[in-house]
Automatic annotation (TrEMBL):
This is inositol-polyphosphate 5-phosphatase. It comes from Pyrocoelia pectoralis. Belongs to the inositol 1,4,5-trisphosphate 5-phosphatase type I family. The lineage of its organism: Eukaryota, Metazoa, Ecdysozoa, Arthropoda, Hexapoda. InterPro entries: Endo/exonu/phosph_ase_sf, INPP5A, IPPc. Keywords: Hydrolase. Its EC number is 3.1.3.56.
Amino acid sequence: MDSKTVPFLLVTANVGSIFEDPEQMLKIWTNEFLVTVSRLDPKFIALHCQEVGGKNYEKSMKHVEDFINLLTSNNELRLFSKSRIFLDEDYSSAENFTALGNLYFIHESIKDVLIWDFKDMKFVPVQGKEVHSGNIETVVTKEKAKFPQDFFPECKWSRKGFMRTRWSLQGTVFDMVNIHLFHDASNFVAMEEYPSVYCKNRRRALEHTLQRFHNDSYGRAPYFLFGDFNFRTDTDGVIKKLTEGLTTTRIQNNKNGDFTKLQYTDEESQLILTIGKKEFKHSDHQSIFLQNTDTWLKRFDKEVEAFENYVTEFDVTFPPSYPFEENVSEGANYMLTRCPSWCDRVLLSLSARQLVNEKGFIEYGIIGRNTCMGDHKPVYLRIDLKGNAGGKFKGFCKYIRRKLRSVSSAIDK
């Protein structure tokens, strides 16, 4: 390892569906993750999970401890002597619950590592291993927030939000932000226009989050933003591309007169594409979406473009990360429910990009390509992080602490 850089592995994983079949899926998922860790040989691992405990969290939250034990009691992580795990599990608190999990593992060769205390506005040493689970509202080494209620007026409440931590690693300061944005509820609504109403909701929530970091009361730091953005392709554009020269038939619902499906057929009346509220089925579905998607489908992947003044991303050359089959025997195939999309991403602020040694090792891809990992394939970014790149921020921290002391002194007087 170059003494001036740290091999870094950032992973985002929506793990909701692996808790539907914990006896099989937890071990399969963990094994694939650890194989990737072993191959890439990082010294700092950041794993951001969404939907911790699953969709039916009241029943399956109890399996989260088994998941963590599987991860931490293995040979691949035996030399990671320091860790910080934050699991937001208290589903009884609807106003706070996000079901996010931020897991960080630091190799024993890393001596200089600090984590930010958001209450006392200072860095504190990272020693040993800590797991914060259940209700973590009072844990000071993380910041967590749900999106405002008016961001999802059609829902009673939502788990969507973000959780971040701040680090100083070998003298380099950065934020790690786990985020979960809103999904597409109906293919019919998604295909009405671009940007769709769902896309607009995601955009508003992400703008809200990035503005918060831009005007950060804790001082601005470079950030790595990775999670389930639920970014979808331009559904209207994709359908028009797939149905050029085809005939459209609307299948009516006899009860209310609304159509329940759209079917597209060729000149020989062969059914090519079927669209329903939760159905997206092409006659050549697997090959058309798994092969060469980076050349035709990728041009319809537009949502991140709205944030190019804030964030950047390494080249995406892997297939869409969602929606894969949840059946263990069909994990290499897409479900026939949604247009496959790059929902899961690793984005970097423009300042964070400058922390990456771009002449070093860089790999951006998905984990478990041919294995069932649930409906989302985990997405990872392996980079080399530059050391001693945090001077400006440290100066700001000293300034903040001086201001706090002066305010406290004035109050005492």
